[in-house]
Amino acid sequence: MLRDREDIFYQRFQEFHEVARTGQADNDLITERKEAFTTYQALTPPWVLTSDGEAISGTYRRADMPASALVGLPVSTGTVEGRARVILDMTEADLEADDILVTAYRPELVTGVRTIKGLVTEVGGIMTHGAAIAREYGLPAVVGVQNATRLIQDNQRIRVTERTATSRSCRRAPTGEVGSWLT
C-alpha cells in the first residue's frame, strides 16, 4: 500500500490500479517523483514559450513609472491599497478582507478570492484564469509581475494601481519607511 495518502498524486493511473490490485507500491519511484517535483517547483518558467520550444522574453514599458515600481499587465481596473499576502500554496492561505493576494499563478486561487481586495501574479495574461476571476469579482489586478513573490514581502503594505491605460504597477515600500504606500 501507499505509505502516505498524498503519494497517490505521484502515481500514474495504471500504477495506482496496480497498487489497488496487488497492495504493493513502488515507494522508490514515488520518492524519486517527489524529489523531481520539488526541483520543478524551484524553476521559473519563461513568460512565453512557443510551440517550437523557443523561450521569448521581454519587458514592460516603464514610461512614467517610479524606478522601484514592479510592473505588470493590467487585467482588471481600479486602485487598491492593503496588506500583501504572498501565498505559494493556496491550501495554506489565511486571507482577510484587507489583503492583496500575491502568488505565482494558481488556478485554485478562486477559493480565496471572495475575501481579498486585489491580486498580483507572476504569470498570466489578459485571458488567464486569474485575470478572468479578478474581472468577475471586480478586483484590481496585475499579472505577469516578474518575481513578485520574491520581491514583495508577506504582510507588507502595497498599492496596486493603474498608472497608464496599458500598465499597472505595484511597488514595495522602502525598508524602514513606516506607513508609506506603494505606487
UniProtKB/TrEMBL annotation:
One of its GO terms (molecular function) is transferase activity, transferring phosphorus-containing groups. Pfam families: PEP-utilizers (PF00391). Residues 97-160 form the PEP-utilising enzyme mobile domain. Residues 163-183 are annotated as: Disordered. PANTHER family: PHOSPHOENOLPYRUVATE SYNTHASE-RELATED, PPDK_N DOMAIN-CONTAINING PROTEIN. This is PEP-utilising enzyme mobile domain-containing protein. It comes from Kibdelosporangium phytohabitans. The lineage of its organism: Bacteria, Bacillati, Actinomycetota, Actinomycetes, Pseudonocardiales.
